[in-house]
Amino acid sequence: MLAKIREGGVMSRSEKLNLIIQLSIPSILAQVTTVLMFYIDAGMVGSLGAEPAAAIGLVEPATWLFGSLVSAASMGFSVQAAHFIGANDFEKARAVMRHGYAFGLSFSMILLLITVLIAFRLPVWLGGGVDIQHDASMYFLIFSFAIPFHLIEVLSASMLKVSGDMRRPSLMAILMCVLDVIFNFFFIFPTRTLTIAGWQLMVPGCGWGVAGAALGTLLAFVSVALPLAYFAIFRSSILAWKLDVERFVWRWQYVWNAVKIGAPMALQYLLMNGAQLVSTMIVAPLGNVAIAAHSFGITAESLCYMPGYGISEAATTLVGQSVGADRRDLHRSFAWMTVLMGMGVMAFMGIIMYIFAPEMIGLLTPVPEIQALGTSILRIEAFAEPFFAAAIVAYSVCVGAGDTLKPSFINLGSMWLVRLTLAYALASHYGLRGVWFAMAVELSFRGLMFIFYLYRHLRQKKL
């Protein structure tokens, strides 16, 4: 059905819905399994106590920051590839992918150097206690070496997705989750005796705790990144480099176009994740229980909003190819259908999160104080999920159309002017619950802003 977009075929509403679902389901599964990887990390480390959990929670926003910069660099090239594929110009799509690997790997090495230089100062800057600073530094340092492999994984997966291949990236995301569990099982815990069906089994282990969790995640990224690159470069029916008949020529225009698309996203991610770091600094004085509950709450909530990100990836592919094929009718239709679907799915997930909040937090930590606080903040956040979906999917619609500047300003303005201001004002009186109330208010406001932006620009044919 993707070929219908490129070839100018007429699509019924049911065909559009079917195409959205076909592209969304593998992506949703991939997003959920990726979050499960972090969920399992948190649960395994959380079983060691509040301090190891707080150590990871302290620097986790910084790992997201550098990971999101990698995503921005990749997106600048994958959006161009989607437009060329929509226009049936596969040769240029492959040229863009080659530029993406060369530029992206260079960029990722710069990020790696920065992370290594700041690793042992970061926990101090974030206000972490002396009891968790060393573990936090080691987690961040080891995790940093995953950045180049994360770039390969993200760029390869995004290129395959915009070409219409959602299956391979999704399967590899599931494999990454499974490998992470296996690696963590041996790296985090010491050698111990397990009782299974009455039998005692000696299980070897390294006992590296927080550092073991980071190493397990690093190896999982490496194990998935290389096969994904192989599929994109050698096996894809559209993107395989062997299909090129002319010699590769470097064109700075592709890099410049990627910078124009990716730079606003990178700035947005930088400031958005910077805001997350500021939020962590607001939470840090509340103590290790609050830091751990905050981290676990974010991990648990991500299981609910990852379906929205899965639908958003489908939106980027469909809108990107529609724009490339100059199909404005499909562009508008896919935009609204994906936004409404995302809101419906995440409204349902919000209900699930509200009902099962105690169980979701209970799987991550045995500490009663953390469980009680984590349950209350998840139930506050549940009410914002539909509007969060609107912000996620509408932003991806804009990305697919190559419009990243103004949507980035919406994200930044909402985060810095609404969330942080309100969180700072409420934290001293209401603690972590006040911080999460501010988050729920801001996400609802941001979702409404994106709905208005999308409505106005689609109506005026500016998007």
TrEMBL record:
Compartments, record wording: Cell membrane
Membrane topology category: Multi-pass membrane protein
Matching Pfam families: MatE
Tree of life domain: Bacteria
Residue intervals passing through the bilayer: 20-40, 64-88, 100-126, 138-159, 171-189, 209-233, 334-357, 377-397, 409-430, 436-455
Primary location class: membrane
Keywords in alphabetical order: Antiport, Cell membrane, Ion transport, Membrane, Transmembrane, Transmembrane helix, Transport
GO biological processes: monoatomic ion transport
GO CC annotation terms, alphabetical: plasma membrane
GO terms for MF: antiporter activity; xenobiotic transmembrane transporter activity
KW Lipid metabolism (keyword) present: no
InterPro entries reported for this sequence: MATE_fam (IPR002528), MATE_MdtK (IPR050222), MdtK-like (IPR048279)
Protein name: Multidrug-efflux transporter
Native source species: Prevotella histicola F0411
